[in-house]
Amino acid sequence: MGAEEKIKATAEKVAGKAKEAVGKVTGDDKLVAEGKAEQAKGDVRDAAENVKDAFKK
User: Cα–Cα distances in Å, from 56 out to 5, 10, 17, 50?
Assistant: First the structure.
């Protein structure tokens, strides 16, 4: 299940970057904030998976 979670984390980060970029282009601060939050959520998910991987070794 580790690979699946890493894929989800990456997808969240990519979607967040896209939202942030669209928000910057359109001047929508709320969308920029949502994008940054989504990226942070992906980072947390990714970090959790890295910790799990470290304990498997």
Answer: 15, 21, 31, 10
Residue 37, φ and ψ in degrees, nearest 5: -65, -40
For the stretch 6-54, pLDDT in tens is 899 999 999 999 999 999 999 999 999 999 999 999 999 999 888 888 8
Q: What is the pTM of this model?
A: 0.84
Contact between residue 49 and residue 6 where contact means Cβ atoms under 8 Å apart: yes
CA–CA separation, 10 and 26 (whole Å): 24
**32, 20 contact by CB (below 8 A):** yes
Cβ within 8 Å of residue 21, ≥6 positions away: 35
